[in-house]
Amino acid sequence: MTEWTVEHAATVLLDAERHRADRGPVTDEWPSLDLETAYAVQQELVRRKTADGETVVGVKLGLTSRAKQQRMNIDSPLTAWLTDRMALPVGAPLDVSTLIHPRVEPEIVFVLGQRLSGPGVTAAKAMAAVSHVYAGLEVIDSRYNDFRFTLPDVVADNASSARFVVGGTARRPEELDLGLEACLFTVDGTVVATATGAAVQGHPGEALALAANTLARRGVALEPGWLVLTGGLTDAVTVRPGTRVAAEFTHLGEVPLSCV
Ligand code: OOG
Ligand code: MG
């Protein structure tokens, strides 16, 4: 029998990613995996990625909207790491063959101008640390079969992180009413879902505050220059070669993504 440890779980998940081979949830084999240990696995994953030359460029929140929570059947938000190797320039195609079973979701993205460190961060304080706001698309690619997982599983798997695209239009936060900022999510030109920024925790600034406060418990502060993906505004869509998705926002512009 395998002795499950943080190191072993990290190895298993990194192998799944590298070989594009999805697997059963870790908790099927390691039922005692709790949330704290799952975050330790996530930390070990990113430690290995950075040892391998990747650079942390920010964090993401996941499961911040009802649409995502209902789909994944998990009602608790989470955080995970973003690295430079996940960044896809806007306009570049997504090569689906590099991933397992990618899905795409529209997100509001922050770039921090100031360090943000919890606890006690409010949405107002969080927004004051934001230098620019962008439209984004996140490409998620769970290392688990059919995106079937519990909260500790998905935390250990770095929240299904795979790629992200940041749009070309930068806005200052004070120019926008982000709760009311609208998003049309289209697939092959057809609107499949709509939302406003309020979909994530009532306001994306609340999501950012949540990230700062929960990361503080693990001794992490959000650093100037970091990106923060605030979480899928709508359910994600499965993409295949030939699929064209886009997030169209009222003031943040459009982020298109063509899959090959
Ligand atoms: C987990 C990642 C969730 C989001 O924005 O809610 C996420 C998943 O759905 O596989 O990235
Ligand atoms: Mg996401």
- Residue stretches low in confidence (pLDDT < 50, at least 5 long) are none
Structural domain tally: 1
Strand content: 25-35%
Shape: globular
Which terms would index this structure?
alpha+beta, 7 helices, 7-stranded mixed β-sheet, 260 residues, binds 2-oxoadipic acid, globular, Fumarylacetoacetase_C_sf, lyase, Fumarylacetoacetase-like_C, 11 strands, Fumarylacetoacetate hydrolase, domain 2, 27% strand, binds magnesium ion
Q: What can you see in these coordinates?
A:
Keywords: Lyase. InterPro entries: Fumarylacetoacetase-like_C (IPR011234), Fumarylacetoacetase_C_sf (IPR036663), Hydratase-Decarb/MhpD_sf (IPR050772). This is 4-oxalocrotonate decarboxylase. GO terms for molecular function: 2-oxopent-4-enoate hydratase activity. Residues 84-255 form the Fumarylacetoacetase-like C-terminal domain. Strands 1, 2, 3, 4, 5, 8 and 9 form a seven-stranded mixed sheet that branches. The chain has a four-stranded antiparallel sheet with strand order 7-6-10-11, with no helix packed on it. The protein has 260 residues and is of the alpha+beta class. It has helices at 6-19, 26-29, 35-51, 66-72, 123-128, 151-156, 204-216; strands spanning 56-62, 78-83, 103-112, 130-140, 161-166, 182-187, 190-196, 227-229, 237-238, 244-249, 254-258. It has one domain: Fumarylacetoacetate hydrolase, domain 2. It contains seven helices and eleven strands. Strand 10 (244-249) and strand 11 form a beta hairpin. It binds 2-oxoadipic acid and magnesium ion (MG). 2-oxoadipic acid binds at residues 62-63, 68, 72, 105, 138, 140, 142, 147, 154, 159-160, 231-232.
